[in-house]
Prior knowledge:
By secondary structure, this protein is α+β, with helices and mostly antiparallel strands.
Amino acid sequence: MSDTTDTGTPSPTLATATLAGGCFWCLEAVYAELAGVRSVESGYTGGHLPEPSYQQVCTGATGHAEAVRVRFDPAQISYRDLLQVFFSIHDPTTVDRQGNDVGPQYRSAIFCHDEAQRVEAEAVLREVDASGIHGAPLVTEVQPAGAFYPAEPYHRNFFAQNPDQAYCRVVIAPKVAAPAPGGGRTHQGRRCQGPMPPAAARQSPGLASGSAAPGPPSAAG
């Protein structure tokens, strides 16, 4: 099912959310399972270099965050629902870090597409912060959405394509399989994850986290 017009703009019946919360493989895998979500695309946003590559983003010098662009049907799932899932599947209390993944590309951020999204994002952020569920103040940024650059093809549907890869088994699979906040919405029998400790390190092919970025991954990204 297509969710765009011939010009690549979103269908009038769908809305767009752009979210960054560490490794985009994790966010993509969880949001792809939600009823009402029509597509999830991993990519880079929030930086200053046009058309960045994964290798460039991994240096931390481009200013981009690893992010997902979620196209969803507001009649089936609300923007608030997506934000509540967002705050349950990453650690929003660490600056430029998710577990052993360190750098501005792993920051927690919500990129808003209009004023209504900004108001909703700030409201949900305040509610989650006040709840104390994460045990520390939230550092999630709320910014206007800007240019979004799709990630390289080898990142697409990474969890679905590589379920036996170590990072997928240890970090992503529990997020996809665990209960959603408050019982949450389900899709294909799976639910989104409740609050988790910071993510374990992503193991890139032959490289430890923080090393020079690899090319197309055979083991991780």
